[in-house]
Design brief:
Elements lengths: L5 E7 L5 H12 L16 E7 L5 E2 L5 E2 L3 E2 L8 E5 L3 E8 L3 E8 L1
C-alpha cells in the first residue's frame, strides 16, 4: 500500500512576502517518500495549493502576483494550512554588555 499524499495549503494575502510563500512551497515540493528519487513519478508526500480569499490574482509586496489554486471556501479539506500575512520583523539594537533589545515591527 502506497503512503498517503497530504494536501498542504498556503494562504496568500495582498502584499505577501514571496519568500514566506515560496520557501514553504520549495520545502514541501522537494520532499519524497523514503526510497523514492527525485525523478520518480508521483505519488509524492505533499500536494501544495495556494489559497486566496478569492480566485483573483494576489499581488506580493514586491509586485509579482500569484493566482491562487483555491479560495477560502474550498480550503477546509486540507491536512495543514499555513497563513502567510504581512511579515513581522524584529528590529534589534545592541546594548552593552553584548545584549540585544528587540521589538516586533510590521512592514
Amino acid at each position: 500500500m502506497a503512503p498517503r499524499t497530504q494536501r498542504i495549503g498556503i494562504f496568500v494575502f495582498d502584499k505577501f512576502e514571496p519568500l514566506d510563500v515560496f520557501g514553504f512551497v520549495e520545502a514541501f515540493s522537494i520532499a519524497r517518500f523514503p526510497g523514492q528519487g527525485y525523478a520518480d513519478d508521483p505519488p509524492f508526500p505533499f500536494e501544495i495549493f495556494l489559497i486566496g480569499k478569492t480566485l483573483a490574482n494576489v499581488r506580493s509586496i514586491n509586485g509579482p502576483a500569484v493566482a491562487p489554486d483555491w479560495d477560502f471556501a474550498r480550503q477546509a479539506s486540507l491536512a495543514y494550512s499555513k497563513s502567510v500575512q504581512r511579515s513581522t520583523r524584529r528590529r534589534c539594537r545592541r546594548t552593552p554588555p553584548h545584549r540585544y533589545s528587540c521589538r516586533s515591527i510590521q512592514r
